[in-house]
From TrEMBL:
Lineage of origin: Bacteria, Bacillati, Bacillota, Bacilli, Bacillales
NCBIfam families in the record: BH0509_fam
InterPro entries hit by this protein: BH0509-like
The name this protein goes by in its record: BH0509 family protein
Length: 48
């Protein structure tokens, strides 16, 4: 993941207030992508 993409996803997660800066800085790129997907990506099941 590019640094710009990572910073954008980190900013979104911090706004959601699910994690603090210390927790996020310890995460790997796949972890950040997973949590961003979990909290921000729409699923077809969200609309059922």
């Amino acid at each position: 993941m590019s640094q710009l993409a990572r910073e954008s996803k980190v900013k979104d997660l911090l706004k959601k207030q699910k994690f603090n800066q210390k927790e996020i800085s310890a995460m790997t790129d796949p972890q950040i992508e997973y949590y961003h997907w979990l909290y921000f990506e729409d699923s077809v099941y969200d609309y059922m």
